[in-house]
Structures are given as C-alpha cells and as structure tokens.
C-alpha cells in the first residue's frame, strides 16, 4: 500500500464548478499535512497547510480527518488558472522531516 | 530572487559521466532536502541535510549517489556513472529552523537527461 494515495484523475471540470479531491495516508503518526500544486514541468508550490479543525483560504477549503487518515481539498468557483496537478503531502514531523507525496490528481478546468 | 535557487535548469550527460546538481536554499533557511521525480510519477524523498550534516539519507540509492551541504556554498547532489534510469527532475527544497517551522519551499528543479 502506498503511504499517500490519491485518485490520479484526470478531472475535467467546467469553469465555475466545485471540485473535491481526496487523499488517504497510511502512517497514523503523521503530524503535518499539505496540499501543493504542480504545473506542467514546474516545481511544486505550496497551496495550503491542512489543520485538524479544517481551514479555508479564499476559494479553497481543506479538511483533515485523523481517525480515518483522510485529507480533502475543495475548490469552489473554479478558474481556468486552477488547472494543475494537486499533490497531497504528508510529513511525520512539524516541518523538518521528509515530505511524502501522493502521485497527484490532475485537474483541467474547461472554459 | 530570494527563493530556492537550483542550477543548472537542464543537464545532459552521457552514460558513465558524472552529474552535479546545485541548490542554494532560501535566505535564512538552514535545512535542505532533495527529491526526485521520475516521469509521470510523484516526488520521492532522497536526502535531508543541514549545514555540514546529513540528517536523513533513507531515500538515497546505495550506490553512485551522494549529497553534501558544506559550511560555505550550495548543497550539491552528485551522481556518479550515470545510467539512463537516472533521467528525472531533481528538486531541492529548503526550510527554516526546527520547531513549528513553515513547510518546505521548492526550487525550479534540474532536469537531468541521460543519453
């Protein structure tokens, strides 16, 4: 079983729609959780950290369920610029341990 | 540009040659991480270094690969006697001191092609 599992997609979604990604992780000792986005042939860029209470940043909402070892990302009112691969990332420490990446979910927003 | 700097952006080597990839962390960051991304795959951790110390090298292949982060200068990932399977994007990330530290920030990557 992979340490971090994501649906690879692709998700093809019309502009303005809401889209949700899910991710599960296997190490119950994991402490920090993130969503990164990666554009084609570019570096991963931090989208948002994920906190136990859930958190929101504009059109993006992240949720964490420690009991189920499950992380989600919701994108509302999707824009063409949201087209990218979304990476679920887990860290067993609080920032200074190795990051474990999912293989990513590819999202394409259709005009 | 105060971000993580990697060079070269693209590197072409023939089988058997050596590849040297460089990474300068963000200003104020003392922790460096190297990751490898094979085509159509996710990023895989290779090694975590602080100045003059290797903290975690659990992701490094046992042979041909080495990394350093000297007191002065950038971190270097060195691959000796490269093979076709070494073709990948190599990303460096950095973070600040331990504690409730912010997440890792990535450089643009070095794309290594082996002929």
Tally the helices of chain B: 0
Query: Quick one: which chains have the greatest interface?
Result: A-B, 22 and 29 residues
Structural class of chain B: mainly beta
**Overall spatial form of chain B:** globular
Topology:
The complex is a heterodimer of chains A (111) and B (115).
Chain A: E1 4-6, E2 11-14, E3 19-25, E4 32-38, E5 44-50, E6 55-57, E7 60-65, E8 70-75, E9 84-91, E10 99-101, E11 105-110
Parallel strand pairs in A: 2-11
Antiparallel strand pairs in A: 1-3, 3-8, 4-5, 4-9, 6-7, 7-8, 9-10, 9-11
Chain B: E1 5-7, E2 10-13, E3 19-24, E4 31-37, E5 43-50, E6 53-56, E7 65-68, E8 75-79, E9 88-95, E10 105-106, E11 110-114
Q: What would you say this structure looks like, in words?
A:
The complex is a heterodimer of chains A (111) and B (115). Chain A is mainly β. Helix content of chain A is 0%, strand content 54%. Chain B is mainly β and 115 residues long. Chain A binds chain B through residues 32, 34, 41-46, 49, 87, 91, 94-104, and chain B through 31, 33, 35, 41-45, 48, 56, 58-59, 89, 91, 93, 95, 98-109, 111.
Keywords:
heterodimer; A: about 110 residues; mainly beta; 6-stranded mixed beta sheet; 5-stranded antiparallel beta sheet; globular; B: about 120 residues; 4-stranded antiparallel beta sheet; 11 strands; about 50% strand
């Amino acid at each position: 079983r992979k340490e971090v599992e994501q649906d690879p997609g692709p998700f093809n979604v019309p502009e303005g729609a809401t889209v949700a990604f899910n991710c599960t992780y296997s190490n119950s000792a994991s402490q920090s959780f993130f969503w990164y986005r990666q554009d084609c042939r570019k570096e991963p860029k931090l989208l948002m950290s994920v906190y136990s209470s859930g958190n929101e940043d504009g059109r993006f909402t992240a949720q964490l369920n420690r009991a189920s070892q499950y992380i989600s990302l919701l994108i509302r009112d999707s824009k063409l610029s949201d087209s990218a691969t979304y990476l679920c990332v887990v860290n067993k420490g609080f920032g200074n341990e190795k990051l474990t990446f999912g293989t990513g979910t590819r999202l394409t927003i259709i005009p | 540009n105060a971000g993580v700097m990697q060079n070269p952006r693209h590197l072409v080597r023939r089988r058997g040659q050596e590849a040297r990839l460089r990474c300068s962390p963000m200003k104020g960051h003392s922790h460096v991480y190297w990751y490898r991304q094979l085509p159509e795959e996710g990023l895989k951790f290779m090694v975590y270094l602080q100045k003059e110390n290797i903290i975690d090298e659990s992701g490094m292949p046992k042979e041909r690969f080495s990394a350093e982060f000297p007191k002065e200068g950038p971190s270097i990932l060195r691959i000796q006697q490269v093979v076709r399977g070494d073709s990948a994007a190599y990303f460096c990330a950095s973070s600040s001191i331990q504690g409730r530290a912010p997440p890792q920030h990535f450089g643009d990557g070095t794309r290594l092609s082996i002929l």
